[in-house]
């Protein structure tokens, strides 16, 4: 695949993350363009989750930099930035006291979406991942592992 002609959405330059004396990631150079799909594949401990935490702004790099839309990631309003960034953590991260649908619409409610817009998006996502309305009414503990993963994908 050839790289698009426009500037990347993300540019990682010599990105590193250390935890004490242990290098968890890097140095890594990577460009990700808008609309591009990227899969992180590798053995346990190779830095996939660390990279996602760095991109989400949950941890800071030990070295190098992350540019988002041409600006250092730290130059952005991190709360506003995170509203446009979703990813699924390994265990799914669903809140056990919320139903599946409440987990999915959490950020949409936070963002002030109308009830109609939330309902339409919830229905669209449920169809994409093949979950029925009765499954969305259940709590995470009442869902199978695969169903919990699909709810996590919907929320992301």
UniProtKB/TrEMBL annotation:
GO terms for molecular function: ATP binding; ATP hydrolysis activity. It holds the Pfam family ABC_tran. Keywords: ATP-binding, Nucleotide-binding, Transport. SUPFAM superfamilies: P-loop containing nucleoside triphosphate hydrolases. Residues 34-132 form the AAA+ ATPase domain. PANTHER family: SPERMIDINE/PUTRESCINE IMPORT ATP-BINDING PROTEIN POTA (PTHR42781), SPERMIDINE_PUTRESCINE IMPORT ATP-BINDING PROTEIN POTA (PTHR42781:SF4). This is AAA+ ATPase domain-containing protein. It comes from Iodidimonas nitroreducens.
């Amino acid at each position: 695949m050839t790289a698009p002609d426009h500037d990347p959405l993300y540019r990682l330059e010599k990105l590193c993350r250390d935890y004490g004396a242990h290098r968890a990631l890097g140095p890594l150079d990577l460009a990700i363009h808008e609309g591009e799909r990227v899969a992180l594949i590798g053995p346990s401990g190779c830095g996939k989750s660390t990279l996602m935490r760095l991109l989400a702004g949950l941890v800071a790099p030990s070295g190098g930099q992350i540019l988002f839309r041409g600006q250092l990631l730290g130059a952005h309003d991190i709360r506003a930035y995170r509203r446009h960034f979703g990813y699924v953590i390994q265990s799914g991260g669903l809140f056990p006291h919320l139903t599946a649908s409440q987990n999915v619409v959490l950020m949409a409610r936070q963002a002030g979406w109308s009830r109609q817009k939330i309902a339409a998006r919830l229905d669209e996502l449920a169809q994409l991942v093949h979950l029925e309305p009765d499954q969305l009414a259940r709590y995470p503990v009442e869902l199978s592992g695969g169903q919990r993963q699909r709810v996590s994908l919907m929320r992301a």
